Every structure is written in structure tokens, then in C-alpha cells.
Amino acid sequence: MKEFLSAYHPEPAAAIEPAQLAQYQPTLPADILALWQEYGFCQFNGGLLRLVDPALYRPALTQWLGGERPHYVPLALSAFGDLFYYRQLTETGADVCLLDPHYRRIATCAWSLADFFGEYLLDEEVREDVLRESLAQEAHVALGPLAPNEIYCFTPALALGGAEELPYLTKGDAPTHLHLLFGLTQ
Fold first, then answer.
1. 135: which DSSP letter?
2. Cβ pair 110, 84 in contact under 8 A
3. pLDDT for 12-62, tens place per residue?
4. N or C, where is the chain less crowded by C-beta within 10 Å?
5. Peptide bond preceding 156: is omega within 30 degrees of 0, i.e. cis?
6. Distance of alpha carbon 128 from alpha carbon 109, whole angstroms
């Protein structure tokens, strides 16, 4: 986690209530709970990545997966609305997956939470290709910083002819945008 925190700088966020932390104690590894306890649902590097309140993003994840998955927990969100979630697969097996709402795909990122923070997110290719770091930095300068639960939205959506370029970006509410993107091809 130290390498992650050296590369991704947490920005102040409201503290998480102990009861909320306790709710996820049976499901999530201690590392993520410690991160939440220390930094709250904060954003990193100007909003490139943010830790999310699972309760706020569970409806979107449930919608995209076609049903409730109690052992899947939303963890983080990119500046563009890509949702990362933890999956407890067995008593000892877990992974972290990416829900990419723009290209309607799901991919496994890492086979453990430690690998997600300690390897996957530190990979330069992931930072540029998955998190779109250069575009996020351009958007931050042109459109301003992101508020909590706000993302940079491709307008029109990529599925409708938008492009991964600054002129096609606006800001919007992340849970609402995830819902709208789901409805585009239904």
C-alpha cells in the first residue's frame, strides 16, 4: 500500500462512520478497511481515482451485472466512471474487476486487493490506457476539479459517436451517468 500512496496522493474527504466500516468487515480485506478509515472515500491525483461508498454504487453494479451479487463490492471509480469492484469468489479466493461502461466490458484486474493497489494501479500502461491519466489531467485544467461522486462524461457517449478527447467532455453525477450508459443499448 505504501507504493500506491506514493504514486496516488489522497485528497481530504469526510471520515467514514465506524458502523459503516463494521458493515464491510466480514466481506472486505483489512487493507481496504484501513485505507477507508485513514482517508475516507477520498479521491487521488485530482480525481484520477476515487474510493467510493459501496452503497452508493451497488445499484449501478447490480444493474450492469444483471442481478444482485452480495459478495461483490464496489471499491473505486476512475475519473471517467470506470467502476472497480472486489469479488469474494470462495472462502480464500478473491479478485478485483473493472466494469468499463463505455465499451460495455468487464475484465479481471488483479487476483487480490494487494495486487490491485500494489501492481495494477502502478502500471504506467494501466494509468494511461485504463485510467486515461493524460485526458484526466487535461479535463481537470479545462473543466475544473471533480466534486464527490462527479466524473468527466463523454458527450455524446462513446457508444453514440463521442470520442476520448477533451472537446467531448462534460462533468456529471457518476451514479446517474452509469445508469444512463447502461440504458443506451437496452
1. H
2. no
3. 898 899 999 999 999 999 999 999 999 999 999 999 999 999 999 999 999
4. C
5. yes
6. 15
